[in-house]
Amino acid sequence: MDAVLPDQGPEELGPARVDCAPGGRRGDTRVRIQQVALELFAEHGYERTSLREVAERLGVTKAALYYHFKSKEDIVRSFTEDHFSRVDDLIAWGRDQPPGAHTAHEVLDRYIAIIMEGLEVFRFLERNQASLRESEHGKHRFEQFRPRLNALIEIITGPDAPPRSRVRAAAAFFAASASCMVFTRDAPDEADQPPLPDRDELRKIVLELADDLTGDAPPA
Amino acid sequence: MDAVLPDQGPEELGPARVDCAPGGRRGDTRVRIQQVALELFAEHGYERTSLREVAERLGVTKAALYYHFKSKEDIVRSFTEDHFSRVDDLIAWGRDQPPGAHTAHEVLDRYIAIIMEGLEVFRFLERNQASLRESEHGKHRFEQFRPRLNALIEIITGPDAPPRSRVRAAAAFFAASASCMVFTRDAPDEADQPPLPDRDELRKIVLELADDLTGDAPPA
DNA sequence: GTCTATAGACGGATAGAC
DNA sequence: GTCTATCCGTCTATAGAC
Lengths: 220, 220
Description:
Radius of gyration of chain A: 19 Å
Largest sheet of chain A: none
Order of helices and strands of chain A: HHHHHHHHHH
Structural class of chain A: mainly alpha
Number of strands of chain A: 0
Distance between the termini of chain A: 54 Å
Oligomer: homodimer
Number of helices of chain A: 10
């Protein structure tokens, strides 16, 4: 309902991930809610996960969640806005750079870094696109992928690029993010036959592949 | 609950799309339900779309839907199983071919054809991954993407391929399907600034890009 | 800061008339 | 084949005690 949200909790989620083992410190309830909610929303789906389940997993009641967050959507916003901010910052940075292959490479590299540091959030966004598209009264819930993708494409290709260049640039971002998701262990229980590359290797492979997509000459 | 589903309606959904203009023929209620449900599930999300909405859009009542389909999930199954069958057929075909670059190219080409002919279904699957992951009692609702992706990768790369090849093959499929989705008009209302390539051009661009990802030599 | 209790709405699904 | 009416479950969110 409200347009502005003036930071309504004790502390905000840090750089993408929080470094706390499942030990026993207190005062971190808000963060624990975010972690559990993100995990369940990504694994079982936003709509299919009730706040009762989140609360139970935390050993509290539903009502406790409403002390820390004003709604279910608000929990989502709390861990997605950081991710979107990073992409927005990247777009702003990219627009300030001199156009060319070097900037394109740098943007892809930083984009991949954002994805890999916020993998859980990205997984959630990917798998719940339909739930996040629009709120019940026609207003946008969260700013969408599309405008950001277009902005990133334009940084890579420059303005008024031919369709082929634009599609390939888009493909680079799709391939990069999807590859990071699929070739990273998701739930520990899944028995994937093929062995996964470690994260550094994966990152190198993905960056190379994205460069191949954006860097080459027009067709013969 | 039941494992087998012995075809429980008048006619089954034809090859991906049905050729009927919005005229006034009858006896097609089952197909109209599928079309409307698919459209709403893809646009607003599976969980967020109630059967009441589907029925209202069709000018019938909820109960009428239950004459044609035994549950909400069953509607989804009716238009997704055809899509998955096509992919499974492609996998079977690919395994019968002699391994090599030519087969890889053919598989990618046919995969892209499947995506582009069933774009609405694919859009639905993509945007509702979380809803389709598992049913409430731990059983798989629909066979998943992952095993099929692995099978396709192995056809492209051969068995025991190094991570780099596997990631690039996967990226080819991701990039191909996502590009088809994004560079095809979705809802007619959206005002996309950049002009879209026509479908034949898009298909050529996407196939070329997928070939680039799978076809080249190992790194220097 | 967390609890109990409940309001209030809406969902999927079914029974049975026509 | 479609309708009316309804059952029963679950959900988000809130009120108010401690």
